[in-house]
Structures are given as C-alpha cells and as structure tokens.
Write a structure and sequence with these properties.
Length: 225
C-alpha cells in the first residue's frame, strides 16, 4: 500500500501542477493583454480545484502512465474571448504560447530539483527525485503535444495567428473537428493497427522524437547530461 501511494502521488501531483499552471498561464496572459474573462471567472489562480477535471487531469494520466508509459490528459478549458484582446490575432499567439512556455519552465525547474536531491538520504528525497523525474516527462509531453499545429491545441492557434489568411482560414475551420482527429490518432488508429498487424501509433511518431530532443536539451541546460 505504501509503495502504491508513493507511485500514485509521485505521478498525480506533478500532472496536476503541470496542467493547472498551463491553464492559469493562458488566463493570466489573456488578462494582461486585454481579456479579463478568465480572471473574472476565477481561472487566473494556482488553485487546482479551479482547473482540474477529475478524470482528465488525475485518473487518466495516472492510468496511462502505469499501463502504457505515455501520459495524456486535460483540464477544464480556460475561457478566452480573443476578440477582446488588444491585438486579437497577434495576442492570440502569446496567449496560446503561455501554456507550453510554462510547461517548459516547470520541466527545467524539475530537472534542477532532480539534480539537487539525493534519494539515498531519506524517503522524502527519494519521493522528490521520483516526482521531479515524472514532472520533467509530463511537462515536456504536455508542451510538445499542445504545440501540434491543430486547433484547438495551442500550436493550432499559434499557426492560425502567424500564417497568411489563405492557410490560416482553412486551418481555423478544423477546430470543430480537432478533438475528434486527436482521439482517432490516439486510440482508433492504434486499435486498427493491432487488428491488421501494423504499428499505427501515430502520436508516438509525432511526439517521440521532439519529446526526446527537448528532454536532452533540458538535461544539458541543467547539467544533468
């Protein structure tokens, strides 16, 4: 039981922090750039209760980590009225980048903590080392995943904000289908692949190399290489 509690908390807490601060960052930057919708609704806060979805933020990421080694989850979306931003198209990019940027900073901080603690000193430092390691992985995956250039992901909003209209408009129209496309890529294609004897784990192909590259960069940056 103690080992189970150790493992669950070392995974769940970093995931909650990563997703909470990701969403709060969106709301904070939107507030500073002219739209106070999230602020008025109490979403510019470090209180995870305001952001977490019990299934998508806690149970699913923990379940996937222990069964597949891959982490996927979500929080309650932060409401942003892009029309109220000072410069809607430009500021939409900054609001979108705030979440992944926060995850990168959290990953770097976690790597520094991982380096500073010695798991042989105490049970607490062993837990901190384990949680920090999970935190690096969770934050990098969350960052890279959200930078996929498909609305409603952050990368899709960045692409819509910087691409010329001839490309941005059709991409923006994909937003209503974005989650369906992601669910198909995450679950349906791998299931189909198992049935026909092919590896159709598209998200592993898409996320694996950039996640490894970012983690290697953080290792070098923090002296863990």
């Amino acid at each position: 039981m103690e080992e189970w509690i150790f493992q669950v908390t070392a995974v769940a807490l970093p995931a909650i922090i990563a997703i909470t601060l990701h969403e709060a960052a969106h709301g904070f930057v939107a507030w500073r750039l002219g739209d106070d919708t999230a602020y008025r609704l109490g979403r510019v806060t470090f209180n995870p209760i305001r952001h977490i979805d019990p299934f998508g933020t806690v149970l699913l990421p923990a379940l996937m980590y222990f069964t597949t080694g891959f982490v996927f989850g979500w929080a309650k979306p932060v409401p942003v009225n892009f029309a109220r931003l000072d410069h809607p198209r430009r500021d939409m990019v900054w609001v979108a980048l705030a979440g992944p940027g926060t995850n990168f900073l959290l990953a770097v901080a976690s790597a520094v903590i991982w380096r500073l603690v010695n798991p042989e000193n105490s049970f607490i430092e062993l837990w901190i080392r384990s949680a920090a390691e999970v935190s690096v992985l969770v934050n990098v995956i969350l960052m890279v995943f959200n930078l996929i250039p498909l609305p409603p992901l952050d990368g899709g909003r960045v692409a819509v904000g910087i691409l010329p209209d001839v490309l941005a408009v059709p991409l923006a129209r994909l937003e209503r289908f974005g989650l369906l496309i992601l669910m198909a890529a995450f679950f349906l294609l791998p299931m189909l692949g198992r049935q026909i004897g092919m590896d159709l784990s598209v998200m592993h192909w898409v996320l694996g190399p950039p996640v490894d590259a970012v983690i290697d960069f953080i290792r070098i940056l923090t002296g863990n290489d």
